[in-house]
Amino acid sequence: MKQKRILCINDISSMGKCSLTIALPIISSLGIEAVVLPTALLSAHTVFKGYTFKDTTEEMKNTLNHFDSLGEKFDCIYTGYLGSKDQVKIVLDFIKGHKESLIITDPVMGDNGRLYSGFEKDYPEYMLELCNVSDIVMPNLTEACLLTNTPFVENPTESHLERISDILTNYSKNVIITGVKEENSVAVYSKKGDSNLQKTATSKLIDRQFHGTGDVFASTLSGFLTMGKDFEESIVLATKFTEMCINHTANDKDSQWYGLRFEECLHYLYEMK
Ligand code: PXL
């Protein structure tokens, strides 16, 4: 059987695990080829003060043109952190020529109710154009609120989430909203096509932030979906693996900055395949 491949479009932050430094090992561990395209080179993720940032927009264009000149195809195109509106446009143009690919968009732009530093206020409008050509979008709650111009509330009611997901399904058929905090748990909600929004998976709430959690979830989910696993099963498995990484990291005080110790959990992924 031909090996599956995912084109991962995301930044590389050298330190503080996130983005491609998470996607590459996770997707490789699932036996899938990870074709990586950096959108920027950072010394560390943007929560670290004083991070350096080198834009790679020109090289993105060159790389994607090269792939198209070779007629390369991808089972999945998974996008994460795109540094600018120009990059959104480049990705949109590339996707237009790749009807064969499952398009998964993690609209990375914020957390805790706020846009990450470095993004302009109107960035969510551009990201919506990418959602519009995606098969699956998976914002966290903050990003879902930013995309739909809805005020952020930490503990939303189901009807609030339904309103948000209804707006998002005007853009993408399938929507996954992550990081919805409940009393003792964190829930992942999903809406598949015309079906109702449902709570699809939960994990135990540990009231601390672990950098890279969203990227671990998104990379694992993209891998399972590309392997052909069912939508809901993929969400449940990705949530389970993310929870394993969180439990494993929970006692490490540095992890708030340096991120999840997912590397030491990769062997669990073999068992989950
Ligand atoms: O984990 C999302 C993410 C990706 N890339 C960069 C980030 C963040 C979150 O802070 O800073 C550069």
List the SSEs and their pairings.
Elements lengths: L4 E11 L4 H10 L3 E12 L8 E3 L1 H14 L5 E4 L5 H12 L5 E4 L4 E2 L2 E2 L7 H9 L4 E2 L3 H8 L9 H11 L5 E8 L3 E8 L5 E7 L8 H14 L4 H19 L5 H4 L7 H7 L1
Helix pairs in contact: 1-7, 2-3, 3-4, 4-5, 5-6, 7-8
The structure holds 3-hydroxy-5-(hydroxymethyl)-2-methylisonicotinaldehyde.
What does this structure look like?
- The chain has 273 residues and is of the alpha/beta class.
- It has one domain (5-139, 209-272): UDP-N-acetylmuramoyl-L-alanine:D-glutamate ligase (3-Layer(aba) Sandwich).
- The chain has helices spanning 20-29, 57-70, 85-96, 123-131, 141-148, 158-168, 213-226, 231-249, 255-258, 266-272; strands spanning 5-15, 33-44, 53-55, 76-79, 102-105, 110-111, 114-115, 136-137, 174-181, 185-192, 198-204.
- Strands 3-2-1-4-5-8-9-10-11 form a nine-stranded mixed beta sheet, with helices on both faces.
- Strand 2 and strand 3 form a beta hairpin.
- The structure holds 3-hydroxy-5-(hydroxymethyl)-2-methylisonicotinaldehyde (PXL).
- 3-hydroxy-5-(hydroxymethyl)-2-methylisonicotinaldehyde is lined by residues 11, 13, 18-19, 42, 45-47, 81, 108, 116, 212, 214-215.
- Residues 11, 13, 18-19, 42, 45-47, 81, 108, 116, 212, 214-215 line the site of 3-hydroxy-5-(hydroxymethyl)-2-methylisonicotinaldehyde.
